[in-house]
Design brief:
The protein has 650 residues and is mainly α. 70% of the residues lie in helices and 0% in strands. The chain has 31 helices and no strands. The termini are far apart.
Length: 650
């Protein structure tokens, strides 16, 4: 029933597409090979975050269904449904009243929509499966004390850590459960067995914090908060999330970023209320330990996102719905357990039916709200327009909406959003880059170069700015300057194939064919299925006197892209002397896919002449001359007309 309800509520998500940074999670082309899988595990910077098991799952999914967004959404829905079922099994195992209600609230509450309808947040749904499976297995171990169950639970815990490090809070959650069950904790029975888990979790958490700061960029003025400010922030975060659980209205993809100031008196109320609730539940513990256990679980599971550690999203908001995906269980269990334990029978009869009816109404209301909330995640334009309606000063949303409009060709509106993003955040180097991309699309290359240089001045390690600056210089005929910027881009991010490809093109234009071949080879090592890189490398190999290697790369380019006229043409040129009949077939294929290919007709004529077919040679030569005249290629006309007269006079 839980699984069916979950799938029914999230059915609209199958019509949603890719949004925002989904492209950074769905495996990039350079990581789709088996060597890419190696990089996912052993190269910390190869993926956006070092969650190797998550990205292995994406790697497998990309192999199975490529770029079909609905399939990724389906996986998220099924994983979320599985997590909700595990919640029910755990609560049943613990004999907690309201197990079904709590599991259903976890399944259909609107705050969960962000985690389920956003493909990138498969890190939440998949890690939840491991987290909850490890919890259930360990609870069974706690009864049986069988080593194999402990080993299985530990294995699942490690899998969770490799998917998302919020799993590190699991051993603390288990201790809270044992304290709730027994009223005390035993070092021998409870703590000692979980000590290795605490060590693993702490190591994983500290490593993730290091990655966030040093590789993702969670550092700088916006992250410099004092201990007092972080304490104020933590209290406010806790109550913000509780408010969204109690009254899930105006849910946003990006919430406004708060100004944390100890001089504002009311900001002190949030941590004070947090402490007050803890004290109240502590005093209540002799009568009922459940509320304190739920509160400790909730705050403890939220701890990594409370603001004591820097995470990149803090640059635009301190809160996000997906941060409380697992933590929300504490409040759902507290609510469900309280509802089912109320002495309703003293006031209303028949009490059980009324409680069930009211609980069902709450679940139904949440399901309807979630169904509606899913529509927000249909695509980037819908998502960021919805965000800006309630958060108009969100510079990130302006930038992301502008980028989507730019890719759709709406350059004027895109520029307006980029300018607004820069007004709100003048240091937003991504918006500067996007201004350059928009100018380049509008064929204003000098303006584009200016914006790329501005982006680099704001962020000297901004890889994409160096790459696009190099590309703009390359297409404007400045290959030497382009190579300089491509080289810097390669230094900053050597695993990006297009940089190697374009650097190879610039080096080839400078006549440095040996270096160019090395760059094309590097591009192919990262992205073996790039037909253009195979073609360009083959062309240089043929020019360098390595026809056999050249032919192999031309053939691979044509295997990957059969309708590649230039590859057919250059392969024919390479084999024409030794195999004219095969060359003729490739010239014909080049002409088939590019009917105005004057050079292909000219070389076809020469090959016909080579095998003695004078009539076919004259016809092909005449066609080449006619096309060259139509194209204004007088140089080719002047080369071909004497040859035509020679063929005709024979």
């Amino acid at each position: 029933m839980i699984a069916v309800l979950t799938c029914a509520v999230y059915l609209p998500s199958l019509r949603c597409g890719f949004i925002w940074d989904d492209n950074a999670h769905v495996t990039r082309p350079e990581l789709r090979s088996f060597s890419g899988l190696y990089h996912i595990w052993f190269d910390v910077g190869a993926t956006q975050q070092y969650y190797p098991l998550l990205h292995t799952a994406f790697w497998i999914e990309q192999k199975l269904w490529g770029e079909q967004a609905w399939a990724y959404h389906l996986v998220n829905v099924l994983e979320h449904a599985g997590a909700a079922c595990l919640v029910y099994l755990i609560l049943q195992r613990l004999q907690i009243p309201g197990a079904l209600l709590a599991a259903m609230l976890f399944a259909v509450h609107p705050v969960q929509v962000e985690s389920v309808a956003w493909i990138a947040e498969q890190k939440n749904t998949l890690s939840a499966l491991f987290y909850l499976s490890a919890m259930l297995t360990y609870l069974n171990f706690d009864v049986s004390r069988q080593r194999k169950r402990y080993a299985l639970a530990a294995f699942l815990f490690v899998l969770g850590l490799l998917t998302k490090t919020v799993t590190a809070t699991l051993p603390a959650a288990l201790l809270v459960i044992f304290w709730w069950q027994r009223g005390t904790l035993s070092w021998q029975r409870d703590v000692r067995a979980l000590a290795p888990w605490f060590i693993l979790g702490a190591a994983a958490g500290l490593f993730t914090a290091w990655v966030e700061q040093n590789l993702i960029g969670a550092e700088g003025a916006l992250y410099q908060l004092s201990v007092l400010q972080r304490s104020l922030l933590a209290g406010r975060v806790i109550w913000f999330y509780i408010a969204k659980l109690v009254w899930p209205s105006n849910l946003l993809f990006i919430y406004p970023r708060w100004e944390i100031d100890a001089a504002i008196w009311w900001q002190c109320l949030f941590p004070a209320a947090t402490i007050a609730v803890f004290i109240g539940f502590w005093l209540l513990r002799r009568r009922c330990r459940g509320p304190l256990a739920c509160w400790l679980f909730y705050v403890g599971t939220l701890f990594p996102a409370l603001g004591f550690f820097n995470v990149f999203p803090f640059i635009y908001s301190f809160v996000a719905d997906h941060f409380q995906y697992l933590a929300s269980l504490g409040m759902f269990v507290l609510f469900a357990g309280t509802v089912m334990s109320l002495p309703v029978h003293r006031f209303v009869r028949p009490a059980p039916k009324i409680v069930i009816a009211l609980s069902g109404a709450v679940v139904a209301m949440m399901a309807v709200l979630s169904w509606r909330q899913i529509q927000v995640y249909a695509d980037n334009v819908t998502l960021f327009q919805n965000t800006l309606r309630s958060n108009p000063n969100c510079w990130m949303a302006h930038n992301n909406l502008g980028f989507e409009l730019m890719t759709r060709g709406d350059l004027d509106d895109a520029t307006n959003h980029f300018q607004e993003s820069l007004r709100l955040n003048p240091s937003n180097w991504t918006a500067l880059l996007n201004m350059g991309l928009t100018a380049e699309k509008a064929n204003r290359i000098p303006d584009a170069i200016h914006w790329y240089e501005e982006a680099i001045s704001k962020e000297p390690t901004f890889f994409f700015a160096y790459y696009h600056l190099g590309h703009a210089l390359l297409i404007t005929g400045h290959p030497k300057e382009a190579v300089k910027h491509f080289s810097e881009a390669i230094r900053l991010r050597p695993e990006y194939p297009p940089t190697h490809f374009d650097c190879g093109t610039a080096l080839a234009q400078l006549g440095e064919n040996g270096e160019a071949m090395l760059q094309y080879a590097a591009a192919l090592q990262l992205q073996p299925d790039d037909p253009d890189a195979h073609h360009n490398l083959a062309f240089l190999l043929a020019a360098a006197g390595h026809p056999d290697q050249a032919v192999a790369h031309f053939q691979e380019a044509l295997r990957l892209r059969p309708n590649f006229p230039e590859a057919h043409f250059n392969l024919a040129n390479t084999i024409a002397h030794n195999d004219p009949q095969e060359a003729i077939q490739h010239y014909r294929s080049a002409i088939q896919f590019r009917p105005d290919y004057a050079e292909a007709y000219a070389n076809l004529a020469s090959t016909y002449a080579q095998i003695g077919d004078r009539i076919a040679a004259i016809a092909a030569m005449q066609k080449a001359i006619d096309l060259a005249k139509d194209q204004g290629n007088q140089t080719l006309v002047q080369q071909l007309e004497p040859l035509l007269h020679s063929y005709e006079s024979r």
